[in-house]
């Protein structure tokens, strides 16, 4: 069928903030969908609350609503814009659940909009556990014995009949939220209760566990004519029992024989046809490793997290094709340029191997369990391509940025005993494959490891071959190492850096020897189906011939940000994408180097050339030597390119814009302190300690509280506010261990200071500050975790001027050419500098959205040699307020206390926009999933430090109609000030207590500030419970004040959504 010409305007529902289980892959899919619909001449309207993505930028959709993704907001946009169609299949579980709820209420029908690409019946059959079970039985597809439960009685009855272990899967959730495997009664109670709470409809599926079977996925696409193709088959290295988002995945499948492959292929096609899905779909199977027997685990009836991987692995733009199908096209009408003369109804064939390796946030959540199960914990992933599994696997490891250049020689694993390692590999965990490698080195057999892990023998055998070769090098001397051995090492994927480690020589020595012997990488092509002249590249040492032509156009290389992680998310991808677009507009060929399959920077049409490679010195230099670009942009990809910038420059690479030395010096605290003194910029008293004795001495001199941290770090890792000497000593022992070659920094902590930051553009002479951002949380909470307002709400104009002047002085002193981010604190009417980063920061997209000034584009133009005065930039008066709020993964780590500090913990962010601060803050909270109440009871319990601030907040809440409930000390203080409050027992003071009130949902809002960092049991219980019960909670006085403002606005004003374009017009 040709395209549906009744569609003139389509509403696309985005996925909202980056969270575990629903990350950047939906921005990538949504961006591709917006472009695919726009190129058909259809007007695109987007609703998405995420300001960090390229998707919500001008130029991707025709109108962007940066609004909370709620039923109310979508209905108001439908009423105002009147689109004929709605696309919800690119917004992850958020978009899907919302569309189902609106459809149920007849909202789409009311406004004459039809749901495109996903039909209500299909979703119900795939997502509702009972309906799915019935359908599978009807079409004769095998599923494990299972039951649907909404009560604990049903759960217990099922287990009595079937026995343990059982898998618990909640309906309508993402990333396996609330799921788990129960081996006993206690685990059953825990997972079932959690699952019912997390499910959108309070429904869970219990099924007989097939943990230990092989997990295989098929990515399928179908159109309305019933054309159906397999895009890619993928195999998880971990057996069933570890969430596929937490498993290493390889594509295409490596260990299925032909009959198994065809059996699962036939099943996938049968399932997508029976569900009548039009567009992309992902089917997950468990395959018995001992015979040709399988069961269907589940189906995602939409573009899923796996679709991004399948799309990049197979070179098939699934989201683009699915979007075209949703507006009426069929596969046979869409062209395929890979095989001349055929259509997009053509299954890609992969003559290479792709490995996806997850990236976990355990460095940020040190108390979280590192065990992996059916609930996803990874925050990002890398993808690597090689000619075979060994090469791709090794490339994936060095792409991860976990301080390892290969699989072995990990000091902390070498220190463990063999029985300890044996015990650790029996369950999925973030170190499992490194532990297995260490055991293979010690001579433990493949059979024994297979028995302990149930991992397919093929993968363990491949690792054994790597380990055997690795440790055969120990007896050899570098000077007499045969060229053939070096060639063999490179063929097996060993990195130069790892070989340097083995032979105790420099990485440069390995590179030089390798090149002298003619051992260099060649580059292969991955063609993109359905798109003319689109392809990307990967390197190999397999001896295959080089297929990638090089031209003599002007070109510039951009280094991407590698895997998403806490502290370095899609904001950095956003700036890289803008750099690619700007280079193209200025007549340069852009070359992108990145290894993250979830992002827009690795989409086939972002840069002119894409090298899907690790962002390491070795890999970047090889591409640089091949392409010979005019320069390399390193200041946009976060810490990833910065970590290698100096080494690249030393190897002769021309770095564009600010030089690595300038960036490095800004992060050298002692040098920075001297420069600030010279520039007459006030800073908190500070010092550097190289030993515990020095630290104690400094603490006494500066006076407590102090802020401590290791000396060179992104995302505030290892930072803490310390209130006494005893805790300083405890930290000193841990922190010096964080990075032994770097000393420990100690600053005076500015108590009750307002934090502010700027993103500025500089060309070496002049500086332009777009706006000042005011943090809502006080200094001491990481800027990435604090809500912030643009333009500033309470900062005096004189301080804004001081901040702008300081930023300009610093930019000139550090010779910044490009972007600069500077953070300040305002304390006792004085402006102090906290830090300066002469690189793009995570706030660039937010500043760009609110001011309407494309910071990354202008920074790129400056790197190309333009001057600020030529760009004609003028500060614009902002007629509205944007509030950014952080989004946290605490619901995925129930054992972590959700209290904020100087170390970043947010996975993503949202934004609320309105005419006043209160409303913008209210909308930002709503977008982050924290809907502020407009009436009810507020539990107030604060530390002694905060008691003097709480009285006015309590009075405001009472005037807004709330009742106050508080515990002992807080109640006594409030009553002493004449504020009416109900008293509630603490946990250990008898029943009923605050725990009972929270559990019984008698509390609507919680204000609880921690007593100290290692907070009392009551405090952490309150905060953890509030997450479980979805009660809005504030852990700082600043957030409590902002909450009062937000509630006041929400009570008085009803606002209708406006697009970003309207706000700026």
Strand element count: 40
Measured as a percent range, the helix fraction is 25-40%
State the end-to-end CA separation: 39 Å
Global outline: globular
- Total count of helical runs of at least 4 residues: 38
Largest beta sheet, briefly?
7 strands, antiparallel
**What class do helices, strands and sheet pairing give?**
alpha/beta
Fraction of residues in β-strands = 15-25%
What oligomeric state best describes the polypeptide chains here?
A: single chain
Spans with pLDDT under 50 lasting ≥5 residues?
none
In round numbers, the mean pLDDT is: 91
Radius of gyration: 28 Å
Please list the strands of the largest sheet in the order they lie side by side: 14-13-10-11-12-17-18
Which helices and strands occur, and which strands form pairs?
Elements: E1 9-13, H1 25-38, E2 43-47, E3 63-65, H2 71-81, E4 85-87, H3 92-104, H4 107-110, E5 114-116, H5 120-127, H6 129-139, E6 146-149, H7 152-162, E7 166-170, E8 180-182, H8 185-198, E9 204-208, E10 214-222, E11 228-236, E12 249-251, H9 258-275, E13 279-287, E14 294-300, H10 305-314, H11 318-326, E15 335-336, E16 342-343, E17 353-359, E18 380-386, H12 389-399, H13 411-414, H14 418-424, H15 432-441, H16 446-453, H17 457-472, H18 483-491, H19 496-503, H20 507-516, E19 522-527, E20 535-540, E21 555-559, H21 570-585, E22 589-594, E23 609-612, H22 617-627, E24 631-633, H23 639-650, H24 660-667, H25 669-678, E25 686-689, H26 692-702, E26 706-710, E27 720-722, H27 725-738, E28 744-748, E29 754-763, E30 767-778, E31 788-790, H28 797-813, E32 817-827, E33 830-837, H29 844-851, H30 855-863, H31 868-871, E34 881-887, E35 908-914, H32 917-927, E36 937-941, H33 947-959, E37 963-966, H34 968-976, E38 982-983, H35 994-999, E39 1005-1008, H36 1017-1028, E40 1033-1034, H37 1037-1052, H38 1060-1064
Parallel strand pairs: 1-2, 1-4, 2-3, 4-5, 21-22, 21-24, 22-23, 36-37, 36-39, 37-38, 39-40
Antiparallel strand pairs: 6-9, 7-8, 7-9, 10-11, 10-13, 11-12, 12-17, 13-14, 15-16, 17-18, 19-20, 25-28, 26-27, 26-28, 29-30, 29-32, 30-31, 31-34, 32-33, 34-35
